[in-house]
Predict the structure.
Amino acid sequence: MNYFLSIFLILPLLSSAQYGPIPEANGVRNGLWSTEHIPTKRLIQYPPVSERDVLWSKRIWRAIDMREKINQPMYYPLDEVTSLEWITNASRWSLWTIIRKHVMNGDLRVFSPYNPNSYGLGAVDGDQLKYPIDPLPGENYYTDANFRSDILYYLGRLGPESDIPLVDEYGEPMLELDENGNESFVYEAPDTVWYNSKDIVEYRLKEDWFFDKQRGEMDVRIIAIAPVVYDTELDINGNEQITGKKELFWLYFPHCRYVFNNYFTYNDKNDTQWMSFDDLFWKRRFSSYIYKESNSFDRPIDSYAHGAEALYESERISNEIRTFEHDLWSF
């Protein structure tokens, strides 16, 4: 675990850094002016909504694919964790870099995608925000050893096991006895491999669409967000094979807004008009597809439709939401 230990010594240095990645060290400014708006912007609250004002609502789960060009401001710039440092961009971070930093700092509360007591074998129902992974009060990743051990399974994974036995001071392979008294070689414990920005293939959102009769308009509120990576396993030759996708964890989005509000997202049209990640989600500046809607069976689309049929079903649900507001009015 030497790799993990060295990273554990490096990462705390970032926790004491300023809130956003725009340092001006030694009076040196990387530009013509000091960037002030986004790093110091106060969060704009949503218009209040009460149950009596909601005429209609629909719960939706959607996926934001990082391969689509419009979604690249969430994916880039890539970061990398080496045995010496955490390499990040100096002026802006990817969405995953932001999430990981503030999870480790204790600013964002992680909800497991499954019951932690089931060791990943239970139902994947973490979007209901049922299984919080919390440090001790006032503690975080750097100060709470138990939380650091627990959160490791959500921020990284164990690397491949070594096939070279450890040796003693005489150069002889080290042996140990199992419970049956049989000898076996001792191998070095696998290193921790941290998930980087390039490992995140999509983000999943749980959101509520509703018609507010008080304001006379359709609106949406994101309830939760989850980063997703490829799920892999080793084949008989020891090569990693992709077997599907898995949610790392869920975050309560209203809490995320206070963090996302002070980080830049890239604008390829104008470098002086970078918005925040909170603006990006509020203005719906991303492409996505619906993979589940609220239904009596509580099942996702891919359980009853596949391929092109699943895409048609996703578009049907989107059109249903779009036309609902339109059909309320006559011209």
Notes: The chain has one domain: 2-20+39-159+193-231+239-327. Residues 308-327 form the longest helix (20 residues).
